[in-house]
Amino acid sequence: MGTRASIMINLFSLSNLRLVLAGCWCLGFLTIASVLVWPEFLTLGVVGFAGLLTICCVSGALTVYRQQHILDELCDTVLAAAAGNMDARISNRQSRGKLANMQNAVNQLLDLTEAFTKEAAAAMNCASRGDYYRKIVPRGLRGDLIGYAEKVNNALDIMDVQTKTFRSSAGRIGDDLKFVVGDLSDSARKLTSNSDFLSQNVTKIADQSSEMRRAAEESSAALDGIATATEQFSGSIKQIGSQIDGSASLSEVAVERARSAGEHMERLDSLATSVTSVVKLITDVAEQTNLLALNATIEAARAGEAGKGFAVVASEVKNLANQSSHAAEEVIREIGQMQEMTREAVVFVHEISETITEIDNGARLVADATREQTDAVAEISNRIEQAVTRMRDIVTSVALVASGTNDSREVLVALHDEANGLLGRAESLDGDVRNFIGQVLDNRAKEAVS
Amino acid sequence: MKQDNLFLTGVERHFDEHEIIVSKTDLKGRITYANDVFLRVAGYRERDILGQPHSIIRHPDMPRCVFSLLWETIEAGREIFAYVINRCSNGDHYWVLANVTPTFGPNGKIIGYHSNRRVPRRDALEKVIPLYAALCEEEAKERNRKEGMARGTAMVGKLLGDAGIDYDQFVFTL
Fold first, then answer.
1. Residue B68 lies in domain
2. What are the PAS domain coordinates in residue numbering (chain B) (predicted)?
3. What are the pLDDT digits (tens) for B28-87?
4. How much is the pLDDT for B112?
């Protein structure tokens, strides 16, 4: 059936029609020529001519009808293609002939155009994801399309290189930025914690400096008290010194007086010795008186009665002599005791004198020590005055420190806020940088997901 | 419709580097258009092939997993490149580098598929032929066709995974 259909189609193809018409034209020419040569065949010639004419008309009409259908399809396809429909093609094509060639040519044109367009679209789509390996495949393309494909592919190569360069630079910059941002974040974090730490310390310093100020003021007051006390102490030491000086001269007087008392005692001793010799004389007188009384008694006894009165006197004298003797012995004993006591007194006076001398020496030492103390106290007083002055300076300085630390605290609070702000900005920058790098480097991954 | 017992001559046909074999199919893979190069190389007349399934030119040396990947890709609306060996009507064969794309209708839906096939580079074929042979061998290990195809797909997946590239890049490196 296929073969017969192709013969039918071939019968009504334009080239066949041309053959048929040429044949008919030749036959018609022959018919006319024959009629001119042999006029008796005129009727036959007219009939033959009419027959040929009919054949020409019928085959022409059939061919035109057949070709019209092919031309319509061709026209529709070309119009669709002209409207941008790349998918349109001519099917059920002629196997041979000019129309077949034309059908194939239109299909080929559309095949090439669609292939090129789809290739370009696919390559661009791939490039839009950041991949440049997908090129327009130049094989199978023809004519100008090859040149255009090469141009597109060259552009893709250049884009690939530029993108790689950009990505590597962006990656490097991104890495650098990440480092910098990381350092910045660390620094800001450290700054925050350090400013916190400093702030706490400054608070402590402020507390301590006010404590110090109070202590310094108290010390200053205490030093003032000490200075006053030292001056008083210095005064009393001076007084003690002068009193000791006074007591030294008094002790000299006492020593002098003790010595003179000793001399008096010694004179008293010698006087007592002289009294003793006088008393001895009295004793001798009393003994001789007693002997005389004894002799008188004896003589009175011899005188008898006459001597009786005398014997009484003699006995009275004897009694007086005995009493004198007794009294003298008493005096001698008393004087002996007195002498003994005087000697003891002399010894005591000596001892007193020595004691006073020792006291005097002690007092001199005390006086010397007191003088040294006076000097020392004066030095102390001087130093205390300096200390008071220094302490006042310290109080002033501490007050300055306190106000300075207050200022510092305010600055540190501001610094802390700044550091916090910086940290926030650094973190946001870090996010931006990460996003940026992610966008630059992970385009493909993102595209793959979408 | 297993065609493994198809008659093969072992003769390879070639077409010109400046030619493209073009065919179009409907959504079910039935041929709606074949250009003159297709008809000439595959040895069919247009009216014999229109309406036929595209698998009419399938060659038994072609791993099933490649077609599986091909259909999976184009049904997802993406283009695919594949080296394909096709069988001519007389049992000859020819190699092509096929670029199959979906054709979208005015509403954006896929209305058919479009395959442009070019002369493949010989050096690429030298890599493809043993690879396809290995895949076919792998697929033949299973009696069940689906399981065999799964084995082939797994093998392709492993090869690509080892190379660290996706299929599209892989095809372009051949």
1. 21-173
2. 26-77
3. 989 999 999 999 999 998 888 999 998 889 998 999 888 888 999 999 998 899 999 999
4. 93
Interchain CB distance below 8 Å, A133 and B169? yes
Q: Structural domain tally of chain B?
A: 1
Q: Tens digit of pLDDT for each residue in A10-53?
A: 555 667 777 878 888 888 888 888 888 888 878 887 888 788 88
Task: Report the amino acid identity of residue A342.
Answer: T
Contact by Cβ (8 Å): B100, B70: yes
Q: Rounded to the nearest 5°, which phi and psi values hold at A31?
A: -60, -45
- CA A242 remoteness from chain centre: 66
Which residues, given as ranges, of chain A have pLDDT below 70? 1-14, 441-450
Pairing of strands B80-87, B110-118: unpaired
Residue B2 pLDDT > 60: no
Q: What percent of chain B has pLDDT over 70?
A: 97
The CATH number for B158's domain is 3.30.450.20
Within-domain flag for B75: yes
Contact B99 A137 (CB under 8 A): yes
Does A119 sit within 8 Å of B32, measured CB to CB? Answer: no
Determine whether A142 is exposed, middle or buried from the number of CB atoms within 10 Å of its CB (0-12, 13-18, 19+): middle
A128 vs A436: CA distance, rounded Å: 17
Contact A134 B45 (CB under 8 A): no
Q: Report the residue from B20, B47, B112 with minimal CB separation from A111.
A: B20
Using CB atoms, which residue from A91, A95, A140 is nearest to B20?
A: A140
CB atoms < 10 A from the CB of A329, how many?
Answer: 14
Q: Which of B17, B32, B169 faces A139 most closely, judged by CB atoms?
A: B17
Are the beta carbons of A91 and B17 separated by less than 8 Å? no
Q: Is residue B7 in a domain?
A: no
- Give A109 to chain B, closest Cα distance, Å: 11
Average pLDDT, chain B: 88
Q: Which residues pair with B117 in a beta bridge?
A: B21, B98
Residue B15: closest CA among chain A residues belongs to which residue? A140
- Identify whether B15 is part of a domain: no
Residue B69 falls inside a structural domain: yes
Chain A touched by B163 (CB under 8 Å):
no
ipTM computed for the complex: 0.88
Which DSSP category does A41 fall into? G
- Tell me how far apart the alpha carbons of residues B29 and B113 are, in angstroms, rounded to a whole number: 8
Candidates A418, A438, A446; CA nearest to A178 is: A438
In this prediction the pTM is 0.59
Structural domains of chain A, ranges and CATH numbers in brackets: 2-128 (no CATH), 169-449 (1.10.287.950)
